[in-house]
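2024-03-11 09:14:02 INFO queue: dequeued item Pyroglutamyl-peptidase I, len=197
2024-03-11 09:14:02 INFO validating residues
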Amino acid sequence: FGPFGEHAVNASWIAVQELEKLGLRDDVDLHVYEVPVEYQTVQRLIPALWKKHSPQLVVHVGVSGMATTVTLEKCGHNVGYKGLDNCRFCPGSQCCVEGGPECIDSIIDMDTVCKRVSALGLDVTVTISKDAGRYLCDFTYYTSLYQSRGRSAFVHVPPLGKPYTAEQLGRALQAIIEEMLDVLEHSEDKINCQHEH
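2024-03-11 09:14:37 INFO prediction written
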């Protein structure tokens, strides 16, 4: 995400730029976008990106001023959006998708990803959350989950230096996304095997 509120520099964008420098494994095409903190832009941009790239997975990264760990979000919420965005706008319905389910879970097993990344011994703590905060992070996550039938993930990072450097966050994102892809590929192999029998 881009800047908003007291976050004149958004740690999530800096972390993603570090990830872009590091790259992912060779068979992965990484496309990186900075998303403005605006509800209406998100509603237009997220479906457009899904359409343009037909990705295997979309991972959104946002900053949380309250976070002290790198946090994997399990689900996105549809209702309860009252905070004004950078355009001083808030959806009149206070929801992402009218008539959509209240909550959509990612198809990625975040507990498994968290355990695996923690076992790598990085100098970053990774935790799990079920509440992405009912602001643009949660709004974007739900929009993406709805669009992709759960094929999205969301990672919250703390502000820079509280306690991690951009480089530490970039390395953590690299490890997290590689584990997510691994988990996703294995769950799909299982599904495909079941169809063949």
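2024-03-11 09:14:37 INFO annotate: The mean pLDDT is 94.
2024-03-11 09:14:38 INFO item closed
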